Amino acid sequence: ETGVTQTPRHLVMGMTNKKSLKCEQHLGHNAMYWYKQSAKKPLELMFVYNFKEQTENNSVPSRFSPECPNSSHLFLHLHTLQPEDSALYLCASSQGGQNDQPQHFGDGTRLSIL
Amino acid sequence: DAKTTQPPSMDCAEGRAANLLCNHSTISGNEYVYWYRQIHSQGPQYIIHGLKNNETNEMASLIITEDRKSSTLILPHATLRDTAVYYCIVRGDNNNDMRFGAGTRLTVKP
Q1: Which of A48, A98, A106 lies closest to B43 in CB terms?
Q2: pLDDT tens, B17-46?
Q3: Does the CB of B30 have a partner CB in chain A at under 8 Å?
Q4: Does A66 touch chain B (CB under 8 A)?
Q5: A29-74: per-residue pLDDT in tens?
Q6: If you count Cβ atoms within 10 Å of the first and of the last residue's Cβ in chain A, which end, N or C, has fewer?
């Protein structure tokens, strides 16, 4: 139990569907992150939120739309995805963005695009 | 821009200490060394981190060389549940990106 909960754990969707991934952290942190982990590739940072404000967007396609309504919740809205978007999507949180604060990860959502 | 290098794999007997090595010869003075592990079908699990001094917690010990160019993660009594991929990461100021490389696949054998 890491204190970061992601739902759903598995998601299969067609390219025309719209779905959302949810992340909730119970650690009192104020920074939250979305990462993508594809097979045989390192983790890729997608988005960063500090105190509910987006501070980083690493050239992520617009078919991925993040939302951070408060410091404890983070969403990733998906629409018109491509087969290459199939991956493990990981959420993480930390106490601030300083480099001496570890990020704590959830167990991810395994996304498959048909 | 890989800042760390790790052996791709290692085996360890159950109950023995597992020593995992990481080279980070280009590390800067304000960069921290982090260790995570990832068990299949789970997210990365934070283990330990340090700047200059050796660190110990309930999971592991981190030994950083005096020149900071390498570090060793020590699992004092490895169990079968410690089988995972272990990642060493160097993280600088204002760097949100945890740059996971290929890691070391540790297999603990009975």
Answers
A1: A106
A2: 999 999 999 998 889 999 999 998 899 999
A3: yes
A4: no
A5: 999 999 999 987 888 999 999 888 888 888 899 999 999 999 999 9
A6: N
